[in-house]
Design a protein that fits this description.
Order of helices and strands: EEEHEEHEHHHEHEHEE
CATH class: Alpha Beta
Distance between the termini: 13 Å
Number of domains: 1
Strand order of the largest sheet: 6-7-8-3-9-10
Bound molecules: adenosine-5'-diphosphate, magnesium ion
Strand content: 25-35%
Oligomer: single chain
C-alpha cells in the first residue's frame, strides 16, 4: 500500500544542512493501522507530509498504491491525493464560513462528484454529528470539529488516511472518541490508517508502532501477519 524507501529530508539554512529525516524505510500493508510516534521535533510531521505527497524528500522514494509520488509533479501528486488520500490536520483546518456538511462535501465537489450532500449526511451520522450538519465550526467543540475533519478526510473514500496528532488539541474523553472512530473506520472501510502521535496511550492502541527519534526509525513493531 505504502512504501517509504530510504527517505531523507534536509533543510538548508545558510551553510548548515539540517537532516530532519535520515534514511527512513518501512512498508505499510493495505488495511493496517499504524502509529508513528516520537518526541516533539523528531520529524513526525515532516515524514507524514512526505508519505501523503504534500512534500517531496531530499533523497529516497515514496510509493503510494504503486505510484511513485516522490518523482511526480505537484499537479500529479495533487491528483493522487484527491483520488486516494485523506488527511486530518492537528488543527482541524475546517473552513470557518462553511457548515459542517459543506466542509465534508468540499473534497467531493473538487472531484465533481454527484451526491455530495447525501454522502456528507451519511458521514456526519457515522461520526455522531447528524444533528450538527448545519452548524459552523465555531459553534462546535474541539472534539466535534475534529470529527468533522475526519468525516471530511473520509468523504472521498481514501485508500489511505493520514492523521497528524488527531487528538493533540482534545481533552481525554474527546480524544478517546476520535481514536475509537478512526479504529472503526479503519475496520469497516478497510482504509489503511497512519497516525502520528506523541501520546503513548493513543499509540498503544495501534496494532503497529513505528518509533522515530532524531529523524531515524528506532523501533518498528512490524505488521502482524506480514513479514517486515
Ligand atoms: N520547513 C522547515 N525548515 C527548517 N526546519 C524545519 C522545517 N520543518 C521542520 N523543520 C525542523 O525539523 C524538525 C522536525 O520537525 P517536525 O517534523 O515538525 O517534528 P515533529 O512533528 O516530530 O514534532 C524540527 O527540528 C523542525 O524545527
Ligand atoms: Mg508534528
Amino acid at each position: 500500500m505504502l512504501i517509504a524507501e530510504s527517505l531523507t529530508k534536509e533543510y538548508r539554512s545558510g551553510e548548515r544542512t539540517l537532516a530532519v529525516l535520515k534514511n527512513v524505510s518501512f512498508v505499510v500493508q493495505p488495511g493496517e493501522f499504524v502509529a508513528i510516534t516520537g518526541p516533539s521535533g523528531s520529524g513526525k510531521t515532516t515524514l507524514l507530509g512526505l508519505l501523503a505527497g504534500l512534500d517531496t524528500p531530499s533523497q529516497g522514494r515514496v510509493i503510494l498504491d504503486g505510484a511513485e509520488m516522490s518523482s511526480m509533479s505537484e499537479d500529479d501528486r495533487a491528483r493522487i491525493r484527491s483520488a486516494k488520500v485523506g488527511f486530518v490536520f492537528q488543527s482541524f483546518q475546517l473552513i470557518s464560513t462553511l457548515t459542517a456538511s459543506e466542509n465534508v462535501q468540499v473534497p467531493l465537489e473538487l472531484r465533481g462528484e454527484a451526491g455530495a450532500e447525501r454522502r456528507a449526511a451519511d458521514l456526519l451520522e457515522r461520526v455522531g454529528l447528524a444533528e450538527r450538519s448545519t452548524h459552523f465550526p465555531m459553534q462546535l467543540s474541539g472534539g466535534e470539529q475534529q470529527r468533522v475533519a475526519i468525516a471530511r478526510a473520509f468523504s472521498n473514500r481514501p485508500s489511505i488516511l493520514f492523521a497528524d496528532e488527531p487528538t493533540g488539541n482534545l481533552d481525554a474523553a474527546s480524544g478517546e472518541r476520535v481514536v475509537a472512530l478512526l479504529e472503526e473506520l479503519n475496520r469497516e472501510s478497510g482504509s489503511t490508517v497512519v497516525i502520528v502521535t506523541h501520546d503513548a496511550v493513543l499509540a498503544s492502541r495501534a496494532r503497529r508502532q513505528i518509533r522515530l527519534a532524531d529523524g531515524a526509525v528506532i523501533e518498528d513493531t512490524g505488521s502482524a501477519g506480514h513479514t517486515v
